[in-house]
Fold this sequence. Notes:
This protein is α+β, with helices and mostly antiparallel strands. It contains nine helices and four strands, in the order ααβααβαααβαβα.
Amino acid sequence: xxxxxxxxxxxxxxxxxxxxxxxxxxxxxxxxxxxxxxxxxxxxxxxxxxxxxxxxxxxxxxxxxxxxxxxxxxxxxxxxxxxxxxxxxxxxxxxxxxxxxxxxxxxxxxxxxxxxxxxxxxxxxxxxxxxxxxxxxxxxxxxxxxxxxxxxxxxxxxxxxxxxxxxxxxxxxxxxxxxxxxxxxxxxxxxxxxxxx
Length: 197
């Protein structure tokens, strides 16, 4: 459990992984999508609240429902992707705390009736789980194209009409066409973004 990952794994997950906009026609199996979620749910969240929800759009009919809510620049690449995941968060996550955080029976009461705290906690921890989701997808050999260019309210009304689940970001999934990648954008040095005290 304490061994560092080998160089090849780090390359695949971080160093050579890229955000993809063009895709090969290779399909993504449902079993791989299940495995992504099974890995992502293992990452830490505060009080094991696990608010993330994932909706995978594979069919043309499902993608057509998403299309009107996409920013213009995201339409073609999303329609071409084998899968588009809506990474969302559940504002009623606290209802399951007795199950997911059983050693603190009072945990549900930390949130019930506190909408600002609920929203902040669900968004923060759902975003963490979204990051775990991307790492899990890359670890399983998929390429990712995360994006925020869409109308959240429209997506929520279309796919989560009960109002308790809210979209966070979209992530196209598949096997990317590496030949279409532009040069990688620069990254800051350690000294520019970090400090050790």
